[in-house]
Amino acid sequence: MNKYREKLFIVFLVLVLGLLLLVRFNYRNIPLERDEGEYAYAGSLLLHAHYPYQDAYNMKFPGSYLMYALMMKIGGENIESIRLGICAILLITALGLIGVSYMLTQNKGASVLAGVLFVALTNTMGGEGLMANAEHFVNLFMVLGVFFLLFFLKHKSSLIYLFISGVLLGSSLVMKQYGYAFCLFALLTLLVNLFGQTWLRIIKSLSVFLSALILPVAMLLAWVVYHRLWYKFLFLTIRYAFAYLGLDRGNVGKSVSQIFLSAIPIAVVVVIALAILLLSLRERKARFLLVWILFSILALSTGYYFRVHYFILAYPALAVISAYAYNRMVFKNYGGIGKAGIAIALILFFAVQKEEQFPANSTDVLKNHYRYSLFADMPVVARHIDSLIPESDRLSLFSNEPELLFYSRHIAASGYIYNYPLFELQPYAREMTEEYIQQVSSNPSRLFVYHTGALQLQNQSTYRFFETWWKRYSQNFSLIGVYYATSETGGAFLSKEQLERNDDWKNAVRVEFWMRK
Predict the structure, then answer these.
(1) DSSP state of 31
(2) Which pLDDT does position 490 carry in this prediction?
(3) For 316-367, what is each residue's pLDDT tens digit?
(4) Closest of 69, 60, 77 to residue 406, by C-alpha
(5) What is the mean pLDDT of residues 504-513?
């Protein structure tokens, strides 16, 4: 009877997993948000023999750009390829978590549960897991790396599995710098498990693992040197990145509450699982999982920004902890209660979040989450840009919306595809602003696009410097139209003639189109 219930439980979980993937499929055409626009633009540059750190400046390592380029190489340079690519990546990550959980629990139901809960946690707009964030790529390589590490440790297998683990974990670092925490976690796990073995075994294992860990980073550096991106790469990913740390303190409570409210039934399951884990710390596996979640917290808290999508980095550990907790309940003869509670939580998740999981219009969900952002309107704005200048023109752009560049298929006149760095309280702000001005001023294109959205003026000195330049430079242009936010979730175009009769746009988030006289 128990085996029959377990099989029924697994069938239920597989059906839920299929439903969760179907939900993501229904979001396959929603417009890109800001970070996705950056990755898509940089990925598109790579496909056309242009490069980040040359035509797109950012402090992130380029792994996410390469993954976007891969997805678009397979499916075409469009939104659907990106969305379906992320769906496939999440499924592979979920399968990796099933493998990790099975090695820890030897329980098939618990293992499948880990994969299902992971996908459920990423399936909310409130938690921003529905978006194609870089954290998904970090998780992919980290989870697969942990799987091969545990396989090596469990079966005392060939060092080739340890080498594969190191390459995968090193690749998680290349995806985004936050992967460093998981490299440290894996190294600590290996050291603990090598304790008491012969010195020869310890030296061989560490040599293989560390060389494999370094390999993806070494390949990245070789790629940077080969394409002569070295100076800008070092400046952006090291000097500026360190200056960026701690510029602003995020509200961790606000982010956690937003994630909790976006998936209350699943969050309750996770909280109970964490309680069971803390009560089971006499077990070696429980201590391993506790260390995993602690290093996940280290990863997401680096820089103290605590943005909502950073918490995606903790979802794999939380999913495996939930699998472990369920297995403990089975071991204590509370498996029936565990199955019932999990089933109820998953059903309630779909019921409570039905407007998000089964929306009449998935783009409306995006609009309601990112109010006044105009993310959903950017494809329309991009088409307008295309009607004003030829595709061969570089686009002079002052904005924090790089998705405009991806949609319009224009290369930016300046590598500063975000204006955030220009006005931050960091020591390179003036230097960056001067470089932006020099790059834009030397661009012969007739069009300048000025976007006021998401403008953050921490550094008033560099903004005054920029404003002085813009007032002088804009005298060479005429304002020929505006696209402005008419509400929290939508916008409208105003022609040059309409601008004179309507002042509402002056206090709204807007995109201004300036044409050279």
Answers:
(1) P
(2) 83
(3) 999 999 999 999 999 988 989 999 999 999 999 999 999 999 999 999 999 9
(4) 77
(5) 90
80/78 Cα distance (integer angstroms): 6
How far, in Å, CA of 447 to CA of 407, rounded?
Answer: 16
**With left for phi above 0 and alpha for psi between -120 and 50, is residue 374 left, alpha or beta?**
left
C-alpha pair distances (Å), 140 with each of 125, 184, 245, 405: 20, 17, 25, 27
Start-to-end Cα distance in the chain: 81
Predicted structure pTM score: 0.95
For residue 482, which of 443, 513, 436, 503 has the smallest C-alpha distance?
A: 513
Give residue 482's region: left, alpha or beta (phi > 0; psi -120 to 50). Answer: beta
Strand, coil or helix: 185: helix
Query: Contact at 8 Å (CB) between 133 and 33?
Result: no
The rounded distance, in Å, linking the Cα atoms of 294 and 436 is 40
Nearest one of 394, 380, 449, 355 to 124, comparing CA atoms: 355
**Residue 124 region, left (φ>0) first, then alpha (ψ -120 to 50), else beta?**
beta
- pLDDT at 312 exceeding the cut of 70: yes
**β-strand pairing of 447-451 with 396-398:** parallel
Q: What is the pLDDT of residues 35-56, one digit of tens each?
A: 999 999 999 999 999 999 999 9
Residue with tokens 């071991």: 331
Q: Decide if pLDDT at 212 tops 90.
A: yes
Residues 6 or more apart whose Cβ sits within 8 Å of residue 454:
34, 373, 400, 401, 420
Q: How far apart are CA 329 and CA 269, in angstroms?
A: 13
d(CA 501, CA 377): 23
User: Can you tell me which residue has the tokens 């699943």?
Assistant: 266
- 452-500 pLDDT per residue, tens: 876 777 778 999 999 999 999 999 999 999 999 888 888 899 998 898 8
Residue 431 class from Cβ within 10 Å (0-12 exposed, 13-18 middle, 19+ buried)? Answer: middle
* Tokens coding 102: 């099975």
With tokens 């109010």, the residue in question is 371
